[in-house]
Design goal:
Elements (H helix, E strand, L loop, with lengths): L6 E7 L32 E5 L7 H5 L2 E3 L19 E5 L3 E4 L5 E5 L5 E5 L8 H4 L18 E8 L5 E4 L6 H8 L17 E7 L2 E7 L14 H6 L6 E7 L9 H14 L15 E7 L4 H16 L3 E4 L8 H22 L17 E8 L2 E8 H8 L6 H13 L2 H8 L6 E4 L6 E4 L28 H27 L8
Parallel strand pairs: 1-3, 2-4, 9-11, 9-12, 12-13, 13-14, 16-17
Antiparallel strand pairs: 1-8, 2-7, 5-6, 5-8, 10-11, 15-16, 17-18
């Protein structure tokens, strides 16, 4: 079994956020110490990082499920939970991150380049953080959010400047071994090369990389043989070298037909447009007529060279065994690579910072009226309402009331009314596959001034003190009662009710 793997399906899951805690400070002689519940810690992220010491995706092929650490819950005495540790996954340079549908998410090039594949969940707030002037003693806390989960595809694409293309056993591995210090496996049977072999070539002051990749057969662009493995690794190469076997003994094989078949496969292959590369059929081409140490092969090379030059192709006749024609080939490839690098530098456009401020009327959510098999429903779609619902402990009535207040302040109820919702309507908040279902009851406004706010404590906020107007009214009423009592006593004295019979 080979130790080289260049494509894996990876299942990643970020850590969950820790729950907040509802706690009351307890201390001798302080029965009402106030809320002191701490916040939960954030869950860890799953991060892909380019590591130049990594050359294969074999570890992820063997263990495709990876999960980051969860955040710790909060505690009393204002203690916040610890954040979950990020899961850092090293990947080789040139790794492309895709969805299962083939959409490119990231192109990881350059030592230390990072990509967050799954974001950790937020930690829930404790009741200390939820306390306010209106809510001095909240008896609830928010739950931690679940971390993101994703199924991504990692594809490794070689970062060579030059790619050697050709039929199996055309001598590509031998050519790499004599041009560079690479030592690929060489044998006299087809498909000896099963994995890309990279080598560094020095031509004067110019250094460039050259790749020997699995051989190509007709139908490779459709996945036959090792075609897709081959074509994936030449997408980044700026120069393509056709290595043609002039000493083949197979029937119906000659240099011109071999070249035409390979050109057809290059034209049929569809690469990733998101990577910014030009089609393979438009790359710089060089033809190498190999195995010229065989007399018949040398004669055939001299015969087809003018025909290839008529097509505008640069042709070299070489022998990897006899080491002939290699110096001219290496310097010619260096010239093409230098030109390609200069073109890339000219095409580089400085990245612009684009600011897209939110509109003043952007509520951050939408209410959509839908018809389902169970009847009419109203779906609330938005990041904030979904997050609020996930953080709510529905076993706590005060927490449910806090959620209702948040949704009302955000304008969700107003939008539901505009969409046609009435009391008892079914309201769904969250994604379609994991939504929370409510039987909507509109918030009543009339009489609300007689009720205390949620999370208030009458012992902490006494309201039985009399106003100055009430004191004045009570004083005058007492004076009036005293005056009336005196007049009544005086009237009884004048009438003789207090006179003794003796």
């Amino acid at each position: 079994m080979t130790n080289f793997v260049d494509r894996v399906v990876l299942h990643v899951e970020a850590g969950k956020g820790g729950h907040g805690v509802a706690s009351v400070h307890r201390e001798k002689f302080k029965p009402l110490g106030g809320p002191d519940g701490g916040n939960g810690g954030n869950g860890g992220d799953v991060v892909l990082v380019v590591d130049t010491q990594s050359t294969t995706l074999l570890d992820y092929h063997r263990s495709p499920h990876r999960r980051a650490k969860n955040g710790a819950p909060g505690a009393g005495d204002e203690k916040d939970g610890a954040a979950g540790e990020d899961l850092v996954l090293p990947v080789p340079e040139g790794t492309v991150v895709k969805t299962r549908a083939g959409d490119v998410l990231a192109d990881l090039v350059g030592e230390g380049t990072r990509y967050v594949a799954a974001q950790g969940g937020r930690g829930g707030l404790g009741n200390r953080a939820l306390a306010s002037q209106r809510r001095k003693a909240p008896g609830f806390a928010l739950l931690g959010e679940p971390g993101e989960s994703a199924e991504i595809v990692l594809e490794l694409k070689s970062l060579a400047d030059v790619a050697l293309v050709g039929f199996p056993s055309a001598g590509k591995s031998s050519l790499v071994s004599v041009l560079s210090a690479a030592r690929p496996k060489i044998a006299d049977y087809p498909f000896t090369t099963l994995v890309p072999n990279l080598g560094v070539v020095t031509a004067g002051s110019m250094r460039y990389t050259i790749a020997d990749v699995p051989g190509l057969i007709p139908g490779a662009s459709e996945g036959k043989g090792l075609g897709l493995e081959f074509l994936r690794h030449v997408e980044r190469c700026s120069v393509l070298v056709h290595v043609v076997d002039c000493a083949t003994l197979e029937p119906d094989r000659d240099p011109m037909s071999d070249l035409d078949l390979i050109e057809a496969e290059l034209a049929a292959y569809v690469g990733d447009d998101a990577l910014g590369g030009i089609p393979l059929s438009e790359r710089t081409r060089v033809v190498v007529l190999n195995k010229a140490d065989v007399p018949e092969a040398h004669e055939l090379a001299e015969m087809v060279t003018p025909m290839l030059q008529e097509r505008g192709l640069e042709v070299f006749t070489v022998s990897a065994v006899a080491h002939t024609g290699l110096k001219e080939l290496s310097f010619a490839l260096a010239r093409h690579v230098q030109r390609a690098r200069a073109d890339i530098e000219r095409e580089v456009v400085p990245q612009r910072v684009v600011l897209r401020p939110k509109g003043v009327d952007d509520s951050g959510f939408v209410v959509r009226r839908e018809r389902t098999s169970d009847g009419e429903v109203f779906r609330v779609i938005g990041e904030r309402p979904t997050r609020w619902v996930r953080q709510t402990d529905f076993s706590n009535e005060e927490a449910v009331g806090y959620l209702a207040d948040r949704l009302s302040r955000a304008g969700v109820e107003d939008q539901l009314v505009k969409a046609g919702a009435v009391a008892g309507s079914t309201v769904l908040i969250g994604p379609e596959d994991d939504a929370v279902v409510f039987d909507w009851e509109p918030t009543l406004v009339g009489g609300a001034e007689l009720l205390g706010g949620r999370g208030t404590d009458a012992r902490l906020d006494p309201s039985d003190r009399r106003t100055n107007a009430e004191r004045r009214e009570e004083f005058h009423a007492r004076k009036d009662a005293q005056s009336a009592a005196r007049e009544e006593l005086a009237a009884e004295r004048r009438a003789g009710h207090w006179t003794d019979e003796d």
